[in-house]
Amino acid sequence: MDFILLPDKPLKIDLGENVNVYPINTFIRNNKYLRLLTVLEFTVRAIFLLFRLHPRVVHTHDTAAVLPVYFYRLIRGKSFKLIYDDHEIPNEQESFQYRFFQYFERKLMKRADKVISANVERKLLLDQSLSLDPNLTTYFLNLPYFESPAKDKIYKNQSSKLQELDDVQAKGYKLIMHQGILEIERGRQKLAEFSQLLPHDIKIMLVGVSQEAYNTFITEYELEDDHFICVGIVNYHELIDYWKRADASIVMYLPTYINNRLCAPNRLYISFLNKIPIVVNKDNPVLNNFVTENGCGMFIEDVDKENVNAIFSLAYDASKIETLKNSEITKFVNGYSELLV
Known about the structure:
Layout: E1 2-5, E2 20-23, H1 35-53, E3 57-61, H2 66-76, E4 81-85, H3 96-111, E5 114-117, H4 120-129, E6 137-139, H5 156-170, E7 174-179, H6 188-195, E8 202-207, H7 211-221, E9 228-232, H8 239-243, E10 248-251, H9 258-261, H10 266-273, E11 278-280, H11 285-294, E12 297-299, H12 319-340
Parallel strand pairs: 1-2, 3-4, 4-5, 5-6, 7-8, 7-10, 8-9, 10-11, 11-12
């Protein structure tokens, strides 16, 4: 198996035997204003690499990788199987550069042998908007399929943060996890209003929010600092330690734009894996459907001072996540098997 990568930073993981990694380090990287030049350089170098590797199946992902595969498809035709893994549905307000890449992304999807979306809602939208054959499209949920790797040490700054959380919980406090930035489209105002409903023994654990952004948030909505614990920015591989301490979670995406309306957030599925209650916004169809079908949470619009503690009494069948994971894995294996025949 070969991986052609446009890396953000040097790759430091070992993928084992029979896996070859070809990082293409472009002259310009991580400059949003010159992204087009980065992609053009990557495109030329990746096309030459594709001709050298002569793959039987090409699985491509993200808009930056569209151009080399699209031109390779035009040249080689149907001599190989093409899978396009749709990264994100374009929002309505994108820059010219992204609209340029999305134009070719859609053309590539129409030439693909299989198109993968992040959930059934996105699949149905793409089927309709691009007139794709539903039999050639599928979806795989962004579930936590693998156990997080064991860590040989806990860094000092993280240890003190975790100890603070342990001390708070030892005093009888409940912690509601909010992972991610405090954006308007992620329910910034709803979160502020929700915090004002909380009694003194419930705190919102903010993970992935800088101290500066937190201070701005508190000041803007005139909130009580005592209702929050701002953990700060956390390395992705260390998140599991914070999720283990969560008594519930809150996941919100306003339905303003397509990509938010049809969201597929991994923290929704991490909450489900950890079997903790999930508070979501009712007007998001994906979050609404998931919570309703699995009986795993509440709508933030239905929470008030009288019933806020009911969040923590929610319980659901622990086997549901395993059933869902096995179903998705089977679908993935069968999909690939059909293409490799």
